[in-house]
Amino acid sequence: MRLIDQTDENFLRTGKFGRYGGIFVPETLVISLNKLAAEFQLTLHDPKFQVKQVEGTFKDATSDAIRAWVEDLDNSYYLAGTAVGPHPCPAMVRKFQSVIGKETRKQALEKWGGKPDVIVACVGSGSNALGIFHEFVRDEDVRLIGVEAAGTGIDGAKHSATLAKGEVGVYHGAMSYLLQDDEGQIICPHSIGVGLEYPGVSPELSFLKDIGRAEFHTVTDKEALEAYSLLCRIEGIVPALEAAHALAYLDKLCPTLPDGSKVVVNCSGRGDKDVATVFQYEQEQQPQ
Questions:
Q1: What is the pLDDT of residues 13-59, one digit of tens each?
Q2: What's the rounded Cα separation, in Å, for the pair 98 and 250?
Q3: Alpha-carbon distances of 92 from 33, 78, 89, rounded to whole Å
Q4: What Pfam families is this protein classified in (predicted)?
Q5: What are the φ and ψ backbone dihedral angles of 16, each rounded to 5 degrees?
Q6: C-alpha 111: how far from its chain's center?
Q7: How many other β-carbons are positioned within 10 Å of the β-carbon of residue 192?
């Protein structure tokens, strides 16, 4: 935990988790990012500051957003929706998303009288996982498990398992694990859950992997779809296909846990947007 404490102390100044993160951008953007970081710090200490959650549904979207920002620095700003990009964007998103973990701690205390034993979240770029993990990072007795998309198979070319199969590189202004070829070119990710289709990942999750504080596993498209259908059938809850990856990992996890273990899965989105995708997949699986 001392390493995490030291990293947190330096992060807001350097924008780095160990070797990950940082500001890898054109010089014209550095002044704007430094101003943003300063304003972010002021806002955090403003008693009137509040976080409001809004709905909305991202590699191409992030690229286009940064490109549009660079083209008109005087009249636009880059609003990050996930925990990637140059500092301070990952720090800002983590702060905003951390309401998930705070609420989880509160409800666990009310329901169980204590903390969860295990927390499971899907991982694409990392914002929803960090949102629930960050509150518990210093609780060493709480396992933090991230689940990436193995797509059609982790050993093939169609997956989004950046932490499982990626190498360290720089993308969208920060250093993290990346899906890249031998020449450093980005490999197109794949997942049935389009929100997991990102070739990079949060610098902080990269750091948590390296120091062993969080563990990361993978789930295939087929396993995620089975979990999606199961939750619909037994609970009447339609999860997002992204969250279904975390749910699917319970089949592997739960048999290994002691009786009475308290497990929280971050069901990070609703799945009505995915109904057409699920229907098309099931049609394709029908015998001809």
A1: 778 888 888 888 888 888 888 888 888 888 877 777 665 443 333 56
A2: 23
A3: 12, 12, 5
A4: PALP
A5: -125, 140
A6: 26
A7: 25
